[in-house]
From TrEMBL:
One of its GO terms (molecular function) is oxidoreductase activity. Keywords: Oxidoreductase. This is General stress protein 69. The keyword Acetylation does not apply. It comes from Novipirellula herctigrandis. Pfam families: Aldo_ket_red (PF00248). PANTHER family: D-THREO-ALDOSE 1-DEHYDROGENASE, NADP-DEPENDENT OXIDOREDUCTASE DOMAIN-CONTAINING PROTEIN. Residues 15-317 form the NADP-dependent oxidoreductase domain. CDD domains: AKR_AKR11C1 (cd19086). Its EC number is 1.1.1.-. InterPro entries: AKR2_Oxidoreductase, NAD(P)_OxRdtase_dom_sf, NADP_OxRdtase_dom.
Length: 328
């Protein structure tokens, strides 16, 4: 497993990270025993970065991670997230930070994260979403800086709102965050315009999420696939979205074949390697809920990088499809 540095102040972390949303719930039925097997195998295979959140099963994902790490001797970096108090997601331009991320709320929430993970200090605490409306008075981040001074947090980050990822650029340039978590994949390449260059300019770590477009870029789904209602993808791919997506996935598959890589690289390998082709990227999160997925996603690090001419060719798959989270 290859490693990269997470920001100028951060440690060396595995370039493939363990995405722990599904083990907390929200992606259909999941057994804790299987989650623990997946976590242990990932660590055995060199993964030392785990991404979780308060919202992944109301802390259940964090609790499973904490339980597994109690029995491991390796140094594992765990990034978690604090969701805002009740209100629109992402926060609207009219939301006040005082109502969504007040100091009292953040302090109580951070203590909850510490308890769930069973640690005295969080490796990385990210605000799970944000709004540009707070950029000129970013008091929630000031609270996190005070919590860092008190020894409860090491690194500070923001996970971008899907509708306005560029809102973190000002935060990076103002030195308010150590890390940003962004969507960057074969379909959504907008982070290449400014976020990634500014991250390099400011020494900000970059965690890439949704690198497989919620599983679509593995190439394993057909146009008529429907997810169970207890899987959040049931809505994400509602209507004709799966058909439109699989048509574009097939075009990527043809590119892989035309470059002569189809025997050695899966669709998932190419999707992960595409994100890793950017040197600004510190780690790419891949969701792993079972041993098979761990085996598939960790093997990618062992493969040769994609040829530069192929990476350039794959730029053509950038897809301006809008934001599906808010409806069609």
């Amino acid at each position: 497993m290859h490693t990269r540095q997470l920001s100028t102040a951060g440690p060396q972390i595995s370039e493939i990270g363990f995405g722990a949303w599904a083990i907390g719930g929200g992606w259909g039925k999941q057994e804790d025993a299987e989650s623990m097997r997946a976590l242990n195998m990932a660590i055995d295979r060199g993964v030392n970065f785990i991404d979780t959140a308060q919202g992944y099963g109301d802390g259940h994902s964090e609790q499973i991670i904490g339980e597994v790490l109690k029995n491991r001797s390796e140094s594992i970096f765990v990034a978690t997230k604090t969701a805002p108090a009740e209100g629109p997601w992402p926060p609207s331009p009219y939301c006040r930070w005082q109502d969504r991320y007040s100091a009292a709320y953040l302090r109580a929430n951070v203590n909850e994260r510490l308890n769930n993970l069973g640690v005295d200090r969080l490796d990385l605490l990210q605000l799970h979403t944000w709004t540009r409306a707070w950029n000129d008075d970013p008091q929630p981040l000031m609270v996190l800086h005070r919590l860092r001074d008190e020894g409860k947090i090491n690194l500070i980050g923001v996970s971008t709102p899907e509708q306005d990822q560029d809102c973190v650029i000002q935060l990076m340039r103002n030195g308010l965050v150590d890390v940003v978590q962004v969507i960057f994949n074969l379909f959504n390449q907008e982070a290449a315009a400014q976020i990634l260059p500014v991250a390099a300019e400011t020494g900000t770590g970059v965690i890439v999420r949704v690198s497989l477009d919620e599983g679509a870029l593995t190439g394993k789904y057909t146009a008529d696939h429907v997810f169970p209602e207890d899987d959040f993808r049931h809505r994400y791919f509602e209507g004709d979205r799966m058909r439109r997506t699989t048509e574009r996935v097939e075009a990527i598959r043809q590119d892989i074949e035309s470059f002569g890589l189809s025997e050695d690289y899966t669709m998932a390998d190419v999707a992960l390697k595409f994100a890793l082709a950017r040197p600004e990227v510190s780690t790419v999160i891949a969701g792993m809920r079972n041993v098979k997925q761990v085996e598939q996603n960790t093997r990618t690090s062992q493969l040769r990088d994609l040829p530069s001419e192929m990476v350039t060719h794959l730029h053509r798959h950038n897809w301006q499809r809008g934001v599906w989270y808010s409806g069609k």
